[in-house]
Design brief:
This protein is an all-alpha fold. It folds into two domains: 221 residues, no CATH class; 188 residues, no CATH class. The chain is built from 14 helices and no strands. The relative contact order is 0.12.
Length: 452
């Protein structure tokens, strides 16, 4: 059974994903920028909560990835009944996980902040606690939205999620303006705005699915809860390895960022600015990775591995083109970009070094390191991706950063060099795995499982 994607259908899938990735970053930046007028304690409180929230929200995103793979494979084999069943199971388990994490956060908010950050100023702790408690209430909403968005992408309809992301940004920014500047409730205003916008996204996408905006998927009868454990197991077989991979990645980034702090304020400022600037370069690449989940997932479901190889090669080549354009634009424009930030001459010079290392080498390895593994996951090879990612993070990025920064003595620049080593190892392992074809032996959907 062949699965056909032409250049036009691939483009219609890709460009909304790229816009959506940009909008996703905008929402987080808006909270930080708009609350900065309240004071440094407010910005600090939000920033430290965001680090923890990303770790927790990764669980929802990972389960959504598992659901997207299972639903895509059902759609690839033209099994709308199985796709609808898997969609409901994804929403059930993601909602349950989100409610559990919400309860955990509400009960242990203050101890959790104290455990991770130790002693921080009282006003920062109060701001962080306020923001954390309110945004924790949005965990079920963001879990439902992530699930719904994954379902729309599974059928190739990424335009709806892009439009919803635009609406969420408008609600968030408008809510911030009202609650922070007019109502003067500071951090609580930013948190409430985030809560309302996430809730709106969850309600809207659920309503669209219930009213038939995705004919390949039906949520009819979703409120008559009935768990189907073989389907849940299929979702978890992809979702759990993806969640562990993402969590270890975020934890590793936190540990590596602590190395930078040892080299003083100049290094911290340069690292922060570099991270903001280079984040714009890999967002288009992330969109290609998300597209591969859908395209290869459908091909794997239909056992159409020739087209899976063809479409993966095409999307990876396009990802390379986009990454080279983005990274080398940043590389050659790094001086004016850095001048937009109020940095000292020393910090400006160090940021230029960081951006040179990132921009010069990243486009050679990033697509194979972070886009290609989504093809492996879409076929069911998620455990291999998790294993390689964890090994690479701890050996090359964490241990490598310590050796380069302290042992060899190149300071904070060693953190960025170790990142490139991490990319190299991942690219080698994933491309070798893909070339050998072991991913074609994996199974996500249990054949002839009961879908009653």
């Amino acid at each position: 059974m062949a699965v056909q994607w032409n250049n036009r259908s691939l483009f219609r899938l890709l460009w909304p994903l790229i816009v959506e990735q940009i909008l996703g970053v905008t929402m987080g930046v808006a909270d930080t920028v708009m609350v900065s007028g309240v004071g440094e304690h407010a910005v600090s409180g939000i920033s430290i909560v965001d680090v923890i929230s990303v770790l927790l929200i990764n669980a929802f995103a990972a389960l959504a990835t598992g659901g997207a793979v299972v639903v895509s494979q059902y759609i690839g084999r033209k099994d709308t009944r199985g796709a609808s069943l898997a969609s409901k199971q994804l929403l059930y388990i993601n909602t349950l996980v989100s409610l559990t994490l919400m309860a955990f956060t509400l009960v242990l908010c203050r101890p959790l902040l104290g455990l991770i950050y130790g002693h921080i100023d009282d006003n920062v702790m109060q701001a962080a606690q306020t923001y954390f408690l309110i945004t924790a209430l949005s965990f079920p909403a963001i879990a439902i939205y992530n699930s719904n968005a994954a379902l729309f992408r599974s059928v190739g309809n990424s335009r709806i999620t892009m439009k919803v992301a635009l609406l969420v940004n408008i609600l968030n920014i408008g809510g911030n303006a009202l609650l922070i500047y007019v109502c003067k409730i500071g951090v609580a205003g930013a948190a409430l705005s985030t809560l309302v916008s996430r809730a709106a996204a969850a309600v809207l996408t659920t309503a669209l699915l219930l009213t038939g905006h995705s004919p390949a998927i039906s949520l009819k009868g979703i409120f008559k809860i009935r768990l189907h454990f073989s389907t849940i197991r299929s979702i978890l077989n992809v979702g759990i390895p993806s969640g562990l991979e993402n969590s270890m990645f975020q934890l590793g980034k936190i540990l590596v960022s602590r190395i930078v702090t040892h080299f003083g304020t100049v290094a911290i400022a340069a690292n922060a600015v570099t991270s903001v600037v280079n984040s714009m370069s890999f967002m288009p690449g992330q969109a290609f990775g998300m597209a591969l989940l859908t395209v290869v997932g459908q091909c794997a479901g239909a056992r159409d591995y020739e087209n899976a190889k063809k479409y993966t090669a095409r999307l990876i080549k396009q990802s390379y083109l986009v990454m080279f354009i983005c990274c080398y634009t940043i590389l050659f424009c790094r001086s004016p970009l850095i001048s937009l930030f109020n940095l000292s001459p020393d910090a400006r010079a160090l940021a230029k070094q960081f951006l040179f290392v990132y921009g010069a080498f990243t486009p050679f390895f990033w697509p194979l390191s972070f886009a290609l593994p989504n093809s492996l996951k879409a076929s069911g090879d998620a455990k291999y991706c998790m294993t390689i990612a964890i090994i690479s993070m701890w050996v090359f990025r964490v241990l490598g950063a310590h050796i380069l920064a302290y042992g060899i003595g190149i300071g904070a620049l060693g953190v960025w060099c170790s990142m490139i080593l991490d990319f190299c190892f991942r690219a080698f392992c994933y491309s070798r795995r893909w070339k050998k074809g072991r991913w074609m032996e994996k199974t996500v959907i249990v054949e002839n499982q009961d879908q009653a």
